[in-house]
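Q: Two folds, back to back.
A: First:
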Amino acid sequence: MALGWLQMARQSINSFKHDTTLFVGIRRSEVFCPMADDIKKNYFTTGQMRNALIQIEDQMVHSGWMPSVVLGINRGGCIPGVYLSHRINTPHEVLDVRLRDHTAKPNLTVLEKVFAFQKKILIIDDINDTGDTFQYIINNFGKGDGRIKFAALINNKPSKVKVDYQGYEIDKSTNPAWIVFPWEEWDK
């Protein structure tokens, strides 16, 4: 049973298990394209982000895998990456792979550097929508023989990449909407 956005925001972040199936959200793949008026917006709260990060941490603990470093994908994964790194007391760095809102070539230098020195790397983003960002990393760097794992606050079921850890799961093919994260709209 899916919880509504307001209900999930009010849910205690200290409870052990949260319902992580939400049927909301799409993310446009167009670059600098104005949003159509008919696209529904759903606002993801800071409380929901914390709930998602607790779920991701719980999944890592139960899988017996914990990272040596957290890489937050620029820009959407930066804030969740910093929060998670503080929660699990692990260093954080920024990985500059911006496919949606940027025209510069993605830079995997940070990944190359930490891969050379760290045993386990968690790469986190706010949403795994189409899978393009994670797929770019896999195509251009690989998964490091299991040393690299992927996480997203929200995972879209039809995505071409299956993340290792997720906070919430959506299916944009059945309920299209745009998910607005707290760091994306200053006025909300």
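A: Second:
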Amino acid sequence: MRIDMWLDTCDPWSYLGVRHLRSAMASFDHGDQIEVYLHAYLLDPDLEGAVDKPRIVALVESGAATLEEVREADDRMRALGGREGIRFDFDSLIIAPTSRAHRVIAAAHDADIDDDTVAGPDSLHLKVAEAIMRSHFEMGLDVSHPEVLIGCAQDIGMPPDLAALAIGDEEWASRVYSDYQMAMHMGVASVPTYVLDGQFLVDGHQTVTAFSNILATAWDNARKDRA
């Protein structure tokens, strides 16, 4: 079975989504037969460099939210993450472009193809996406910086030279843009969004339990279609 997921690495719901999907796959009887393809969605496609001011100041000054709204949303997310062992550090978070991060995630999928590790919850593709988002949300690192991204790749066993190549090669930049354009064409308006076996669309936050039920239903329907 195939799952296509659109995400952005600056989106906390995408971070939870990858973690929950991996957990559900790990406990699913056929999880090692599921291939996940991560696709880039750029929540701020015009952002060219890291923002040199605290995140909360940047959000309020941009008019995206009031100070109270940002604090309330952050408190809710901290509480949700805390129940799962995630320490969201919004005070240290750096607003930065995500295109380079998506390039490394795309390159990890190429490495999975070469190593025949595309299927299952422990693909390089999924692990490097989670590592990048952990660096962003929990460690306050600038995940548009090449050294940070290469470090994330090394930490999960991805060849660092491949990560460096992806960051600097326009081939992967084109792939990121193509993913984003595909999302626009499909009408994807928020992340995370999932398409299971090209038939079932699921969007928004899903718990591990919800994902487990979704996987079971999609798997059974896929088997019926192929019977």
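Q: And?
A: Residues 208-226 form the longest helix (19 residues).
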